[in-house]
Amino acid sequence: MKKELIYKKEKISPFEIIAFIIFNILAFLILYSVIVSKTEYNESTRLFFLIFLLVYLIILYNIYLFHIFLPAFKARKKNRLMKEKGIKVPGFIEKFDYKIFYRSYGTENRKFRKIKYFQLHVSYIHPETNQKEEYITPPIDFSPLKDLGSRNCTVYIFNSDRYVTDFVKNENHQKIWDDNDLSVIQMQENIRKFKEERSQLFKFGLFLLILFICSIFFLIWFAK
Question: What pTM was computed for the model?
Fold first, then answer.
């Protein structure tokens, strides 16, 4: 099955849906076992289980609805509206950008996660001005190198908004980007820089670890 050519903000992964269903089944099974089980639970134990499951389900539904389902639903709804009411013109993917970096999250104990995504630069002729314009798409959820079979696409113009769609899937493993293409060269350069930065971070972390271990041994030796 070929990958769906959509934007990251439109995506709801099958894993998220399956995980949501499994957690719901587990929660209701536990709730059912507490209510109908022949084991004699005292009232305080039953109340604890019910409150715990209620809080669990509220948190689960909030995470799923407000952080996964609703953003994707709103993005898809907006894009459908633009297809219905917007002006349709042919577009051409001039180039792509590849972003890869670490992003910190958390306030107290800062953690880092790797972020990587593609964005497309799409050109089109505006029907009112008859001038060539360029639009940079939001992050896409596919690789233009592996998943695109053509650089042709469709642009919908609705007021000041733009929506690029009708991407052609790569059915026959054709190659639409040359190795000497500027986008490919810049992507490789970004990957190289990212690896260098990651290597430097690793070396610095290893240095701190060795320094910490040496300090411990020095303190043990000095304490003798």
Answer: 0.70
